[in-house]
Amino acid sequence: MRGPILVTGATGFVGRHVVPRLIDRYGADRVIGVGRSDHDLMDPVEVRRLFRDKKPAVVIHLAGYSGGIGANRSYPADFYYRNTLLTAHVFHEAARTRAEKLIYLVGACSYPAAARSPIGEDQMWEGFPEAASAGYSTAKKMGLVASMCYRQQYDLNSVVLVPGNLYGEFDNFHRDDSHVIPALIRRFHEARDNGADQVRVWGSGRPLRDFVYAGDVANLIPFFIEDYDSSEPVNVSSGTATSIAGLAEIIKEATDFDGEIAWDTSLKDGQMVKILDTGRLSALGLSCSTPLRDGIARTVDWFSSNYARRPQALRL
Is 106 in the same domain as 34? Predict the structure, then answer.
């Protein structure tokens, strides 16, 4: 594949990890990163213009409208509408312009709420996702249908990757709509700076989750560009179970907070166990190997250095 590599969502969380990896491997002259301020991917005319002008051989589709559980509950229609259009327009133009490869990421929240852990890729269609984020997760899930349909009709070589709970530098640390790791990092950081004696955390701390460092996912993208040619999705995660209580302790240590953790058990835990089966990834000779403690340390260091200096980078 000698043509340009187009990365949508290049200025977002995952995009800021992926673009440098691609530049390292393929050269800056081949990688075209576009963000929201560059092109409105919900406008089909603009998407067509983008593909006409850039003529990408490979498309890494990372653009999406995402947020924490609070935002999903407040704006479910927006999450559904925007992500549906983003997915449809990019797949259609990639197929119409005969791109050689399209790689698409869909969150593990698209798996059924009742999926059995460890969750294998074959469980994707066995039920409905968690209702609280169904607008987002079902819209993203349509990328699997698009991958199959455009392969069948247009011979578009598309690959669907399913990361676990992503975290790392450049994440969204907003107070109201961030996910669990960035939310806790900010909460502990501010509690330490404010001299608080405790940090309140939702739930009991007992649920088990599968966290994956975004840099690990980014490092695997070249393999899927070069060596994987199937619409069968692949879970890309650590496959390691970590309790929310254990996660909170790691973040407490990384932020040097010496107070107590107060568990608010009046708030529901949600799904108790959600771990991805990484057998298909392992069979390809791949893994996401950054230990959680190391990845959290890197994320905390980045957050701390940007907290006062570059609030726009943290989406505060």
Answer: yes
Considering the candidates 136, 167, 213, 307, report the single residue annotated as catalytic: 136
Q: Does residue 172 form part of some domain?
A: no
CA distance 140 to 79: 9
| CA–CA distance, 54 with 60 (Å, rounded to integer) | 14
**102 and 55 within one domain:** yes
Number of domains comprising the chain:
2
Name 277's Cβ contacts closer than 8 Å, sequence gap at least 6. 118, 119, 120, 121, 235, 239
Q: What string of pLDDT tens digits covers the 316 residues of the chain?
A: 679 999 999 999 999 999 999 999 999 999 999 998 888 999 999 999 999 999 999 999 999 988 777 778 888 999 999 999 999 999 999 999 999 999 999 999 999 999 999 999 999 999 999 888 899 999 999 999 999 999 999 999 999 999 999 999 999 998 777 889 999 999 999 999 999 999 999 899 999 999 999 999 999 999 999 999 998 999 999 999 999 999 999 999 999 999 999 999 987 887 889 999 999 999 999 999 999 999 999 999 999 999 876 655 555 5
Report yes or no: 102 and 156 within 8 Å, Cβ to Cβ: yes
Domain shared by 148 and 261, yes or no: no
Q: Do 162 and 255 reside in the same domain of the chain?
A: no
Q: What is the pTM of this model?
A: 0.93
Residue 229: domain span: 5-167+211-236
The verdict on whether 136 is a catalytic residue reads yes
